[in-house]
Amino acid sequence: xxxxxxxxxxxxxxxxxxxxxxxxxxxxxxxxxxxxxxxxxxxxxxxxxxxxxxxxxxxxxxxxxxxxxxxxxxxxxxxxxxxxxxxxxxxxxxxxxxxxxxxxxxxxxxxxxxxxxxxxxxxxxxxxxxxxxxxxxxxxxxxxxxxxxxxxxxxxxxxxxxxxxxxxxxxxxxxxxxxxxxxxxxxxxxxxxxxxxxxxxxxxxxxxxxxxxxxxxxxxxxxxxxxxxxxxxxxxxxxxxxxxxxxxxxxxxxxxxxxxxxxxxxxxxxxxxxxxxxxxxxxxxxxxxxxxxxxxxxxxxxxxxxxxxxxxxxxxxxxxxxxxxxxxxxxx
Length: 332
Description:
13 helices
Protein backbone atom coordinates (compact mmCIF):
# COMPACT_ATOMS: atom_id res chain seq x y z
CA UNK A 1 0.00 0.00 0.00
CA UNK A 2 1.16 3.53 -0.75
CA UNK A 3 2.80 5.02 2.35
CA UNK A 4 1.74 8.54 1.34
CA UNK A 5 -1.89 7.52 1.84
CA UNK A 6 -1.17 6.78 5.49
CA UNK A 7 0.25 10.30 5.83
CA UNK A 8 -2.90 11.69 4.20
CA UNK A 9 -5.14 9.59 6.45
CA UNK A 10 -3.42 11.03 9.51
CA UNK A 11 -3.86 14.54 8.15
CA UNK A 12 -7.55 13.94 7.42
CA UNK A 13 -8.18 12.54 10.91
CA UNK A 14 -6.44 15.51 12.55
CA UNK A 15 -8.45 17.91 10.38
CA UNK A 16 -11.67 16.37 11.73
CA UNK A 17 -10.31 16.55 15.27
CA UNK A 18 -9.41 20.21 14.84
CA UNK A 19 -12.88 20.93 13.45
CA UNK A 20 -14.50 19.42 16.52
CA UNK A 21 -12.21 21.36 18.85
CA UNK A 22 -13.36 24.61 17.25
CA UNK A 23 -10.48 26.84 18.32
CA UNK A 24 -11.83 30.40 18.74
CA UNK A 25 -14.90 29.28 16.79
CA UNK A 26 -12.70 28.70 13.72
CA UNK A 27 -14.37 25.43 12.75
CA UNK A 28 -12.44 24.20 9.73
CA UNK A 29 -11.66 20.64 8.77
CA UNK A 30 -14.81 18.53 8.43
CA UNK A 31 -13.75 17.87 4.81
CA UNK A 32 -11.30 15.36 6.28
CA UNK A 33 -14.28 13.01 5.97
CA UNK A 34 -14.40 13.59 2.20
CA UNK A 35 -10.71 12.74 1.95
CA UNK A 36 -11.36 9.56 3.94
CA UNK A 37 -14.09 8.50 1.50
CA UNK A 38 -11.82 9.04 -1.50
CA UNK A 39 -9.09 6.99 0.18
CA UNK A 40 -11.62 4.28 1.06
CA UNK A 41 -12.71 3.93 -2.57
CA UNK A 42 -9.06 3.69 -3.63
CA UNK A 43 -8.09 1.12 -0.99
CA UNK A 44 -11.16 -1.08 -1.55
CA UNK A 45 -10.33 -1.21 -5.26
CA UNK A 46 -6.74 -2.11 -4.40
CA UNK A 47 -7.89 -4.86 -2.03
CA UNK A 48 -10.36 -6.35 -4.51
CA UNK A 49 -7.77 -6.54 -7.25
CA UNK A 50 -5.26 -8.10 -4.86
CA UNK A 51 -7.32 -10.60 -2.83
CA UNK A 52 -11.11 -11.01 -2.78
CA UNK A 53 -11.19 -13.82 -0.23
CA UNK A 54 -13.30 -13.01 2.85
CA UNK A 55 -13.55 -9.42 1.63
CA UNK A 56 -16.58 -8.35 3.69
CA UNK A 57 -15.54 -10.25 6.80
CA UNK A 58 -12.12 -8.60 6.74
CA UNK A 59 -13.73 -5.16 6.46
CA UNK A 60 -16.03 -5.92 9.40
CA UNK A 61 -13.06 -7.07 11.49
CA UNK A 62 -11.25 -3.81 10.75
CA UNK A 63 -14.22 -1.55 11.51
CA UNK A 64 -16.45 -3.17 14.10
CA UNK A 65 -14.37 -4.04 17.22
CA UNK A 66 -13.15 -0.54 18.09
CA UNK A 67 -16.43 1.04 17.01
CA UNK A 68 -18.36 -1.29 19.33
CA UNK A 69 -15.99 -0.64 22.23
CA UNK A 70 -16.31 3.14 21.90
CA UNK A 71 -20.08 3.05 21.32
CA UNK A 72 -20.71 0.87 24.37
CA UNK A 73 -18.36 3.02 26.46
CA UNK A 74 -20.27 6.16 25.47
CA UNK A 75 -23.57 4.44 26.34
CA UNK A 76 -22.31 3.53 29.81
CA UNK A 77 -20.94 7.02 30.45
CA UNK A 78 -24.20 8.57 29.21
CA UNK A 79 -26.22 6.59 31.74
CA UNK A 80 -23.82 7.60 34.52
CA UNK A 81 -23.29 11.29 33.60
CA UNK A 82 -25.76 12.35 30.88
CA UNK A 83 -25.08 16.05 31.54
CA UNK A 84 -21.59 15.67 30.05
CA UNK A 85 -22.98 14.83 26.61
CA UNK A 86 -24.61 17.03 23.99
CA UNK A 87 -26.82 15.60 21.25
CA UNK A 88 -26.50 12.06 22.58
CA UNK A 89 -29.48 9.90 23.50
CA UNK A 90 -29.22 6.24 24.42
CA UNK A 91 -31.97 3.64 24.56
CA UNK A 92 -32.38 0.09 23.30
CA UNK A 93 -33.41 1.09 19.81
CA UNK A 94 -30.64 3.62 19.29
CA UNK A 95 -28.03 1.19 20.64
CA UNK A 96 -29.12 -1.61 18.31
CA UNK A 97 -29.26 0.68 15.28
CA UNK A 98 -25.87 2.17 16.12
CA UNK A 99 -24.28 -1.27 16.45
CA UNK A 100 -25.87 -2.50 13.22
CA UNK A 101 -24.94 0.64 11.23
CA UNK A 102 -28.58 1.48 10.57
CA UNK A 103 -29.04 5.23 9.94
CA UNK A 104 -31.42 7.01 12.30
CA UNK A 105 -32.12 10.33 13.95
CA UNK A 106 -33.70 10.52 17.40
CA UNK A 107 -33.85 13.66 19.52
CA UNK A 108 -31.03 15.15 17.36
CA UNK A 109 -28.94 12.07 18.18
CA UNK A 110 -27.84 9.36 15.82
CA UNK A 111 -25.78 7.29 15.94
CA UNK A 112 -24.61 7.20 19.57
CA UNK A 113 -21.02 7.82 18.48
CA UNK A 114 -21.63 10.96 16.45
CA UNK A 115 -18.82 10.29 13.97
CA UNK A 116 -20.42 6.91 13.29
CA UNK A 117 -22.61 8.47 10.58
CA UNK A 118 -19.68 8.16 8.17
CA UNK A 119 -19.30 4.48 9.07
CA UNK A 120 -22.89 3.93 7.98
CA UNK A 121 -21.82 5.03 4.50
CA UNK A 122 -18.66 2.92 4.69
CA UNK A 123 -20.66 -0.20 5.53
CA UNK A 124 -23.11 0.59 2.72
CA UNK A 125 -20.17 0.77 0.31
CA UNK A 126 -18.72 -2.51 1.61
CA UNK A 127 -22.12 -4.23 1.33
CA UNK A 128 -22.58 -2.98 -2.22
CA UNK A 129 -19.17 -4.32 -3.26
CA UNK A 130 -19.78 -7.62 -1.46
CA UNK A 131 -23.20 -8.05 -3.08
CA UNK A 132 -21.70 -7.98 -6.57
CA UNK A 133 -18.84 -10.17 -5.37
CA UNK A 134 -21.44 -12.91 -4.84
CA UNK A 135 -22.17 -12.98 -8.57
CA UNK A 136 -18.80 -12.36 -10.19
CA UNK A 137 -15.10 -12.51 -9.38
CA UNK A 138 -14.21 -9.95 -12.04
CA UNK A 139 -13.18 -6.84 -10.15
CA UNK A 140 -14.06 -4.42 -12.95
CA UNK A 141 -17.63 -5.74 -13.02
CA UNK A 142 -17.87 -5.47 -9.23
CA UNK A 143 -16.75 -1.83 -9.28
CA UNK A 144 -18.99 -0.93 -12.24
CA UNK A 145 -21.98 -2.62 -10.61
CA UNK A 146 -21.35 -0.79 -7.35
CA UNK A 147 -21.10 2.52 -9.21
CA UNK A 148 -24.43 1.87 -10.92
CA UNK A 149 -26.08 0.90 -7.62
CA UNK A 150 -24.89 4.02 -5.80
CA UNK A 151 -25.95 6.15 -8.77
CA UNK A 152 -29.38 4.55 -8.86
CA UNK A 153 -29.86 5.16 -5.13
CA UNK A 154 -28.90 8.81 -5.57
CA UNK A 155 -31.21 9.31 -8.56
CA UNK A 156 -34.10 7.58 -6.80
CA UNK A 157 -33.91 9.84 -3.75
CA UNK A 158 -33.41 12.86 -6.01
CA UNK A 159 -36.62 12.06 -7.89
CA UNK A 160 -38.69 12.16 -4.65
CA UNK A 161 -40.68 9.16 -5.92
CA UNK A 162 -40.07 7.40 -2.60
CA UNK A 163 -39.91 9.57 0.52
CA UNK A 164 -37.94 7.26 2.78
CA UNK A 165 -35.42 8.27 5.46
CA UNK A 166 -32.99 5.47 4.67
CA UNK A 167 -33.13 6.15 0.95
CA UNK A 168 -32.55 9.87 1.53
CA UNK A 169 -29.59 9.08 3.78
CA UNK A 170 -27.95 6.54 1.49
CA UNK A 171 -28.70 8.61 -1.61
CA UNK A 172 -26.57 11.50 -0.39
CA UNK A 173 -24.20 12.60 -3.19
CA UNK A 174 -21.31 12.09 -0.75
CA UNK A 175 -21.38 8.39 -1.73
CA UNK A 176 -19.94 9.33 -5.12
CA UNK A 177 -16.70 10.12 -3.32
CA UNK A 178 -16.18 6.37 -2.97
CA UNK A 179 -16.51 6.16 -6.75
CA UNK A 180 -13.98 8.96 -7.17
CA UNK A 181 -11.60 6.80 -5.14
CA UNK A 182 -12.31 3.88 -7.48
CA UNK A 183 -11.57 6.10 -10.49
CA UNK A 184 -8.35 7.24 -8.87
CA UNK A 185 -7.21 3.66 -8.39
CA UNK A 186 -8.01 2.89 -12.02
CA UNK A 187 -5.89 5.87 -13.06
CA UNK A 188 -3.09 4.83 -10.73
CA UNK A 189 -3.17 1.24 -11.93
CA UNK A 190 -3.03 2.16 -15.61
CA UNK A 191 -1.25 5.52 -15.81
CA UNK A 192 1.00 5.70 -12.75
CA UNK A 193 4.18 6.31 -14.75
CA UNK A 194 2.63 9.13 -16.81
CA UNK A 195 1.61 11.11 -13.73
CA UNK A 196 4.83 10.45 -11.82
CA UNK A 197 6.69 13.15 -13.75
CA UNK A 198 8.20 16.12 -11.91
CA UNK A 199 6.34 18.87 -13.80
CA UNK A 200 2.98 17.10 -13.49
CA UNK A 201 3.50 16.57 -9.77
CA UNK A 202 4.42 20.24 -9.27
CA UNK A 203 1.25 21.35 -11.07
CA UNK A 204 -0.80 18.78 -9.17
CA UNK A 205 0.74 19.92 -5.88
CA UNK A 206 -0.07 23.58 -6.56
CA UNK A 207 -3.63 22.65 -7.55
CA UNK A 208 -3.97 20.56 -4.39
CA UNK A 209 -2.88 23.50 -2.24
CA UNK A 210 -5.45 25.73 -3.93
CA UNK A 211 -8.10 23.05 -3.37
CA UNK A 212 -7.21 22.88 0.32
CA UNK A 213 -7.47 26.67 0.65
CA UNK A 214 -10.78 26.62 -1.21
CA UNK A 215 -12.27 23.90 1.01
CA UNK A 216 -11.10 25.73 4.13
CA UNK A 217 -12.78 28.90 2.83
CA UNK A 218 -16.05 27.09 2.03
CA UNK A 219 -15.98 25.35 5.41
CA UNK A 220 -15.19 28.50 7.41
CA UNK A 221 -17.83 30.58 5.66
CA UNK A 222 -20.43 27.79 5.69
CA UNK A 223 -20.94 27.96 1.94
CA UNK A 224 -24.02 26.00 0.92
CA UNK A 225 -23.92 23.75 -2.13
CA UNK A 226 -23.34 20.27 -3.46
CA UNK A 227 -20.81 18.61 -1.16
CA UNK A 228 -19.44 16.54 -4.00
CA UNK A 229 -18.50 19.68 -5.94
CA UNK A 230 -17.34 21.77 -2.98
CA UNK A 231 -15.35 19.09 -1.18
CA UNK A 232 -15.44 15.81 -3.12
CA UNK A 233 -13.66 16.94 -6.29
CA UNK A 234 -11.02 18.98 -4.38
CA UNK A 235 -10.42 15.99 -2.08
CA UNK A 236 -10.00 13.81 -5.17
CA UNK A 237 -7.32 16.15 -6.50
CA UNK A 238 -5.48 16.27 -3.15
CA UNK A 239 -5.58 12.48 -2.81
CA UNK A 240 -4.35 12.14 -6.39
CA UNK A 241 -1.30 14.23 -5.52
CA UNK A 242 -0.47 11.99 -2.55
CA UNK A 243 -0.98 8.85 -4.65
CA UNK A 244 1.02 9.84 -7.73
CA UNK A 245 3.85 11.39 -5.70
CA UNK A 246 4.64 7.96 -4.29
CA UNK A 247 8.33 7.63 -3.36
CA UNK A 248 8.85 11.37 -3.91
CA UNK A 249 8.58 12.38 -0.26
CA UNK A 250 11.41 12.48 2.31
CA UNK A 251 10.26 9.30 4.02
CA UNK A 252 13.31 9.16 6.29
CA UNK A 253 12.42 12.39 8.12
CA UNK A 254 10.91 12.17 11.61
CA UNK A 255 7.83 14.17 10.70
CA UNK A 256 7.00 11.83 7.80
CA UNK A 257 7.58 8.79 10.00
CA UNK A 258 5.38 10.27 12.73
CA UNK A 259 2.54 11.06 10.32
CA UNK A 260 2.86 7.59 8.80
CA UNK A 261 2.58 6.12 12.31
CA UNK A 262 -0.46 8.29 13.02
CA UNK A 263 -1.92 7.13 9.71
CA UNK A 264 -1.92 3.60 11.09
CA UNK A 265 -3.84 4.94 14.09
CA UNK A 266 -6.09 7.26 12.05
CA UNK A 267 -9.24 5.17 12.62
CA UNK A 268 -8.67 5.32 16.37
CA UNK A 269 -8.06 9.08 16.14
CA UNK A 270 -11.37 9.44 14.36
CA UNK A 271 -13.22 7.41 16.98
CA UNK A 272 -11.76 8.63 20.28
CA UNK A 273 -10.68 12.24 19.70
CA UNK A 274 -13.92 13.65 21.23
CA UNK A 275 -13.14 11.80 24.48
CA UNK A 276 -9.65 13.22 24.76
CA UNK A 277 -10.67 16.73 23.74
CA UNK A 278 -13.58 16.86 26.13
CA UNK A 279 -11.20 16.36 29.02
CA UNK A 280 -10.04 19.89 28.26
CA UNK A 281 -13.24 21.44 26.92
CA UNK A 282 -15.72 20.23 29.52
CA UNK A 283 -13.70 19.17 32.54
CA UNK A 284 -10.49 21.20 32.84
CA UNK A 285 -11.43 24.40 31.01
CA UNK A 286 -14.18 25.43 33.50
CA UNK A 287 -11.59 25.17 36.30
CA UNK A 288 -9.33 27.81 34.74
CA UNK A 289 -9.46 31.24 36.39
CA UNK A 290 -8.95 33.15 33.12
CA UNK A 291 -9.93 32.73 29.52
CA UNK A 292 -7.68 34.26 26.86
CA UNK A 293 -6.65 33.46 23.29
CA UNK A 294 -3.31 32.25 24.61
CA UNK A 295 -5.00 29.81 26.97
CA UNK A 296 -7.30 28.59 24.19
CA UNK A 297 -4.32 28.05 21.88
CA UNK A 298 -2.44 26.19 24.61
CA UNK A 299 -5.49 23.97 25.15
CA UNK A 300 -5.60 23.25 21.42
CA UNK A 301 -1.93 22.23 21.26
CA UNK A 302 -2.09 20.09 24.39
CA UNK A 303 -5.38 18.53 23.34
CA UNK A 304 -4.14 17.61 19.84
CA UNK A 305 -0.92 16.24 21.32
CA UNK A 306 -2.82 13.96 23.67
CA UNK A 307 -5.15 12.90 20.86
CA UNK A 308 -2.09 11.76 18.90
CA UNK A 309 -0.28 9.89 21.66
CA UNK A 310 -3.46 8.35 23.10
CA UNK A 311 -4.63 7.15 19.70
CA UNK A 312 -1.22 5.71 18.90
CA UNK A 313 -1.20 3.85 22.22
CA UNK A 314 -4.74 2.51 21.76
CA UNK A 315 -3.94 1.42 18.21
CA UNK A 316 -0.78 -0.48 19.21
CA UNK A 317 -1.98 -1.93 22.51
CA UNK A 318 -5.70 -2.52 21.90
CA UNK A 319 -6.89 -2.19 18.29
CA UNK A 320 -4.08 -4.03 16.50
CA UNK A 321 -3.80 -7.00 18.92
CA UNK A 322 -7.60 -7.30 18.99
CA UNK A 323 -7.81 -7.44 15.20
CA UNK A 324 -5.03 -10.04 15.06
CA UNK A 325 -6.85 -12.24 17.60
CA UNK A 326 -10.18 -11.99 15.76
CA UNK A 327 -8.54 -12.72 12.41
CA UNK A 328 -6.85 -15.78 13.88
CA UNK A 329 -10.23 -16.93 15.18
CA UNK A 330 -12.38 -16.22 12.11
CA UNK A 331 -9.99 -16.43 9.16
CA UNK A 332 -8.40 -19.82 9.72
